[in-house]
Structures are given as C-alpha cells and as structure tokens.
Design a protein that fits this description.
It contains 12 helices and 15 strands. The protein has about 375 residues and is of the alpha/beta class. Keywords: Signal.
Length: about 375
C-alpha cells in the first residue's frame, strides 16, 4: 500500500502531486519494488510568453536571469582540477555566439579562462538568440557557439552537406531544474487520479512513436501499462508539443530514437503549438499523458517516475535526482565547434573545453546558480569527444 505524505492541507485542491521514491530506495539501485511515497505541493505560477520587447532585450544583452533555486547542488569532487598549460603558448583571438540564456555564464567562463591565459581572447557578441545552432558555424565567421539545447537536425544536415562531417557538440553544463526559459528539466505527467507509479522509455516509445525503435508494438490502453479495474480498458489520450520545438526534439532524441534510428511521432497525438498549455490539458483529461518542462507544471498533475533501462530504479524528477544526473530527462547545454575528424582543435579552444569540464569550470556553473554542474562521469564523456 502506498504511503501518503501531505505537505499542504487546503492547498492540496490546487496542487501538483509529485511521485518519488524514498531516499533509501534511490540509494539501493537494486530495482526491487518498494512502496511509493507521494507528496503534494502547490502548482507553479503560470509563466507568460516573452513579449517582443523582452525578446529583443535578450537578443542584445542576454535574457534576464531568474531568481536561483533555494536548493543548490554540490560540485562533484571526482571532477579533475584544471592544470594550466606551461609547456605551450596559449594565445589567439576567437569569436563566438550564444543563446540568450547562456550569455552571463559564457562570459564568466571566458573571464576566468582569460585569467589563466592573458593572451587568449574569446568573445561573444549580440544578437543573442535561442535559435542559434550549427548553421552559424557554416557561415565561417564564428569559431564556436554556446547553445542551450540540442542542435536542430536541419542545422546538422546543412553543416554536414558543406563540410562532410557533423559539428562537434560538447556538453558543458547541466540544464536548470525548473527555471523558466533556461533549459528546465522535462517531465511526463498524468492526471492526478491516475494510479500509475512508473513508466519506462520503451513504453513511452510504444505510446508516442510510429517507429518503435526500442521494440514492442503500439500501446493504446492503460491496461497495457499494468493498470487494472476501471482503468484497464480506457484509451490513453496522448498530448505532445508540435514539431519543431526544443522540448519536442529533446523527447524525440532521448526517448523515441535508439540504435541510430530517429523516432517519428505516431498519428493521433493532440499537439499543442507551445509548451504552455500542456499541464492544464492533462489536468482536465482523466485518461491522458503529456510532457513539458518543469517550469510549466502550473496545473494539478502527477509527475511520473521514469525507467530508462530495464531493471533501473525509477527516477522521479526531483531536484536531487536532477542535480545528481540520475533523472534521465535532465538536460544539457553545449559548446559547438567545427572540428574535422582526425584534426586537432586550436590549442585555445581545446584548453577552454578542458577548463570548462574541470572542477574549476563547473564551479563557475555553481556560482552562476541557474544551471546544474556536470557530474564527473558526464564530464569524462564530454572530454572524450574532443580527443
């Protein structure tokens, strides 16, 4: 039987139910089934879309920073300490661009790096825009681009058509937990009356895709996900975000695509043009499931823990799980470059990446207090991309 922990009383009528595992279970990693714990918190305030004036301000100066979360992660002490190079001269001038939500962080990284190497000059200039991608590198007048999301497939294909290889995209920080407009964590949610306690990536692929890259056949009823009684024969009403959208592309790449096969959306999904209505849609539809960023959970829905691989312990989208990078739909920011296979990067850019992926570089992320620093295993994997 589930244990219930209520943190708010009367406010529960206008609250979001967050489903999570107990800390003890999260630490076992055994995959054993234990009772779930549910707590209830008020829904977030609705975030209005940027006005054109705000968007233009962001393009020229960077987007205004949100107030940081009260909780903050710790630096992973397994991250290597950065050792400035003494054996070679690190110098040169390199120009780049940045998404409007990465301007301040990028500038802080570059200022810190310049302290190590006074003859190395990296800079970014407006306009800053969330739409920046590999297409900016094709023009040839930029050396790097900070992007707060995965690159668009069209950007990559156009880049490859010109150069014959893909752009290099190096993860350089985690995203945020639930900061509006700042690469917030993505969550799947159901109506608050739904008894489901976890869902796997394979099941999500069976629900949302026509390609089923993870195997299995289409799932259309709640009974096929293990629900019984009144729910067993009820159809699953799917909500999603209309392509192309950063949230949509993230889910397509992380959940619906596998083994080199790009996932395609199935017919019958109720697509919204923007992410804003998603939580409200699901809150008003008893038999529905949908997804959005955590910053947009502004209606009473139930967030569902996810299982990426069979046998894994389900991970709820809690702050702790995002900070530890155990929640599988935590996001990343990227440093994008034009690096030909088998050829080295300019020493300035190579050292900048090494610095950013070090303990000192991720301390800059922590001090910035909007994004989540990488864990050591994430930094190791990112560093391997540059070799």
């Amino acid at each position: 039987m589930n244990r219930k922990l209520t943190l708010v009383g009367a406010a529960a009528l206008a609250a979001t139910a967050f489903t999570a595992f107990t800390p003890a279970q999260a630490q076992t990693g055994s995959g054993a089934t234990t009772p779930m714990m549910t707590w209830v918190t008020p829904v977030l305030a609705t975030n209005p879309k940027q006005t054109e004036e705000q968007a233009e301000q962001g393009r020229q100066h960077g987007r205004d920073l949100p107030e940081p979360e009260i909780l903050q992660p710790r630096i992973d002490q397994r991250l290597p300490s950065y050792q400035p190079r003494k054996d070679i001269r690190i110098s040169g001038t390199f120009k780049g661009a940045a998404s409007d939500v990465m301007v301040v962080l990028a500038q802080k990284w570059m200022e810190k790096f310049h302290g190590y190497y006074p003859n190395a000059h990296l800079s970014i200039a407006p306009p800053y825009a969330g739409s920046l991608g590999a297409i900016e590198l094709i023009k040839g007048d930029l050396d790097f681009v900070f992007v707060s999301r995965e690159l668009k497939p069209d950007d990559i294909s156009k880049f490859k058509a010109k150069f014959g290889y893909d752009p290099l995209s190096v993860p350089i920080s985690g995203g945020s937990y639930r900061h509006f407009g700042a690469l917030d964590t993505v969550a799947f949610f159901v109506n608050k009356d739904n008894p489901i306690e976890a869902i796997t990536f394979k099941q999500l692929d069976q629900l949302y895709s026509s390609t089923h890259a993870r195997g299995g056949s289409a799932i259309t009823t709640w009974g096929e996900l293990g629900l019984t009684g009144e729910w067993a024969d009820k159809p699953i009403n799917l909500y999603g975000i209309k392509p192309w959208n950063g949230f949509e592309e993230f889910i397509r790449q992380r959940v619906l695509s596998a083994d080199g096969k790009r996932g395609e959306w199935r017919d019958g999904i109720k697509f919204e043009k923007l992410v804003f209505p998603m939580a409200k849609d699901v809150a008003s539809d008893r038999y529905s499931i949908g997804y959005s960023g955590m910053a947009y959970t502004d209606a009473p829905v139930k967030l569902v823990p996810l299982v990426e691989k069979e046998g894994d312990v389900p991970q709820a989208p809690t702050y702790e799980n995002v900070a530890l990078a155990t929640y599988p739909l935590s996001r990343l920011t990227y440093f994008n470059l034009n690096k030909a296979p088998g050829k080295p990067l300019p020493s300035v850019l190579e050292e900048f990446i090494k610095f950013v992926l070090s303990r000192e570089g991720q301390q800059v992320v922590l001090d910035h207090a909007r994004y989540v620093p990488l864990r050591a295993n994430q930094a190791d994997a990112a560093r391997a991309l540059v070799r």
